[in-house]
Specification:
Blueprint (H helix, E strand, L loop, with lengths): L9 E5 L4 H11 L3 E6 L20 H4 L6 E4 L5 H13 L2 E4 L5 H4 L4 H7 L4 E6 L14 H7 L26 H21 L4 E5 H8 L1 H13 L30 E5 L10 E5 L5 H7 L14 H4 L3 H12 L4 H8 L6 E3 L3 H5 L2 H6 L2 E6 L3 E6 L22 H7 L4 H12 L1
Helix pairs in contact: 1-7
Bound molecules: coenzyme A.
The site of coenzyme A has 24 residues, from helix 1, strand 2, helix 4 and strand 5.
């Protein structure tokens, strides 16, 4: 067995869809033994959602469940419950993201889990935190983005498309899973000091809010000042008493916007993000061929520029007209201007740097042949996560049951129980 930092940590992965699986997948990459417990027959719903090949596990599943083992168990039946009890006694962590109360209804309350194994770390994702007035709600990604403040602050503030907007980044799902992974490792280190497990919970609403703290900052500033100087509404439009949607404005103190490049009429991603760093105005003027702006009082300071910042972006767009997004970035990088091309998924899939760093990897799969997936975004000097394929449904049932001490006959009986 290769020597990875999380080798030896045994995780019952009682998760489904995205939030929980993203968490346990990452822990598996770093060496944990992750046993995914799935309902016989169907398994994680993502196995069959949005399939690109008939009867083969969908990419939704394969991209969130690599490096795991799959054990099928009907945990509502006595036989399945007995196996889960054994697993709880032998493992370190149980991760789950069922709807509120589902684990309790199965008979695995926190009290019962502690009885079975006082060292167990129970890690849960729910839509809302315990005791919250919405604690009974089931939650998916977009619901969390609305509940956690992201949707109200994303999108356009006027025009036909001006309603709240969902981000395509999984702020509610994978982001919550990443928070939970930090919680699990913290509880694990805590257990080394106390000898005791604990319950770790992350609410999707909280995880989204944690990423929206600059918008909360803006609400507090707006309450005090009545305006937000870095938003496109300033100074020509009026502010209400809530943080407005800011289009593509920069979230911090540096104005920025998405600008059209050569080919935007036909290529939906022929754009760059351009940032106007307040303290680095001179290089921008040199880069875009406007050296006279360096000494023009209308342009010299951020305060002077803000009232006509959109016109400045318009002038930069004119400069970009005959440059592709890649050509533009190649020029601007020489002037130290924070910028990047708007990358399509197709471009990212073929990006040689992402391949070289292991951020995009090809992984073998028993039925697909191989598939592309997103590798570890965390890089270590002494660990190179090796991404292996996702398991077929129940692929490791016999293996795991044998490890738990089940005989061949008992394993056969379990298959019969699973099948009924
Ligand atoms: N054997 C037998 N039953 C099983 C089982 C197994 N191996 N695995 C799960 N189940 C049962 C559960 O006991 C539960 O049954 P119950 O409701 O009768 O008690 C049921 O399957 C799962 O219910 P639930 O999790 O509520 O599924 P859902 O499809 O209705 O809802 C979510 C899906 C994601 C909305 C819901 O799980 C949820 O809100 N999760 C928490 C937040 C979250 O993680 N959301 C993001 C997902 S990316």
């Amino acid at each position: 067995m290769s020597n990875k930092p999380l080798n030896g940590i045994k995780i019952i992965d009682f998760t489904h869809v995205q939030a929980g699986p993203a968490c346990t997948q990452m822990l598996a990459w770093f060496g944990a033994d992750v046993i995914k417990v799935e309902r016989p027959g169907a398994g994680d719903v993502t196995r069959s959602q949005l399939r690109d090949i008939p009867d083969v596990d969908a990419l939704y599943f394969t991209m969130l469940n690599s490096n795991k083992r799959s054990l099928t168990l009907d945990t509502k039946k006595p036989e399945g419950k007995a196996v889960l009890e054994k697993l709880i006694k032998e493992c370190d962590v149980l991760v789950e993201n069922f709807g509120p109360g589902a684990l309790d209804r199965m008979g695995f309350t926190w009290e019962r889990i502690q009885e079975l194994n006082p060292k167990m770390i129970l890690a849960s994702v729910k839509g809302f935190s315990d005791g919250h007035h919405y604690e009974d709600l089931k939650v998916y990604e977009n619901v969390a983005q609305c509940a956690g403040g992201a949707a109200s602050t994303t999108g356009w503030w006027k025009g036909e498309q001006s309603g709240p907007m969902i981000s395509s980044a999984a702020l509610g799902d994978s982001n919550t899973g990443m928070h939970l992974a930090i919680g699990i490792l913290t509880a694990y280190i805590g257990r080394q000091q106390t000898g005791k497990g604990q319950k770790v919970a992350v609410a999707m609403q909280d995880a989204v809010l944690n990423l929206c703290r600059v918008k909360m900052r803006d609400q507090l500033r707006l309450d005090k000042l009545g305006y937000l100087e870095e938003y496109p509404q300033y100074p020509h439009e009026t502010f209400s008493d809530v943080v407005p949607r800011g289009g593509n404005a920069g979230g911090g103190g540096q104005p920025g916007w998405i600008l059209k490049c050569k080919g935007w009429e036909t290529d939906p991603n022929a754009y760059i993000y351009f940032t106007v760093q307040g303290h680095a105005w001179a290089p921008i003027c040199d880069a875009i061929g406007k050296p006279e702006w360096k000494t023009d009082p209308l342009y010299m300071t951020p305060k002077a520029r803000q009232p006509h910042i959109m016109d400045i972006f318009g002038t930069i767009e004119t400069w970009l007209q005959d440059k592709t997004k890649f050509e533009a970035v190649d020029i601007l990088r020489k002037f130290d201007i924070p910028c990047a091309p708007v990358q399509s998924m197709k471009e990212l899939l073929n990006d040689p740097s992402l391949r070289a760093s292991g951020s995009i990897v090809d992984v073998p799969h028993k039925e697909r042949g191989s598939y592309v997936t997103v590798g570890s975004p965390i890089k270590f000097s002494d660990l190179k996560p090796e991404i292996t394929g996702s398991p077929l449904l129940g692929e490791h049932t016999d293996e795991v049951l044998a490890e738990l001490g089940y005989t061949k006959d008992q394993i056969a009986a379990m298959h019969t129980a699973n099948a009924v």
